[in-house]
Amino acid sequence: MEKRIKRLSAWWALLLILGAAATAYEAYQVAHIRQLNQALLSGETIAGKTIADERYAYEAKFAAAYQHGRAQDYKHAVQSYGQLLETSPTPARQASLQYNIGNNLFLSALNRRINDDGSLIDAALYDLTQARVAYEQSLRLNPQPAARFNLSLLLAILPQHLRNPQREQSGMELSNLPIGLP
């Protein structure tokens, strides 16, 4: 009976030590993640250096793209989000990236000057059409109210002839011979 009690006590002590070690490790991870989240939210650096932890390369690149957008450097923001799309993110992350690309393109188009007659310049029209494509892609991947709302705003200011582009006819010629000849 005494051996059995000693054996049970040893097992409980071992479990207590393992539990304490696991708790300490989890507390360290939570503190590290809080510090990283705070740096991402504030746009600052951690301990005077940028986020260079290779475990958070995606988050660091996303934060850099976000900061470009906040600084009204929309071209570099869109470029950085596009580079993140090339990393094969999850569909939810792809939707978020497409949404952010759409936002930056939309803001870029709104910040461009207009022609003397009040029409949009070609670069703004291009940005608006690309923003539309990005919002639609975001909605296909993950329907979210913010993307739907921004797409409706974009469609409200988009010129009528660009809202519903003409579809190509199915009987187009592939070469100099019409389709359907023997």
Automatic annotation (TrEMBL):
Which InterPro entries does the protein's record reference?
TPR-like_helical_dom_sf
The organism sits in which domain of life? Bacteria
Protein name in the entry: MxaK protein
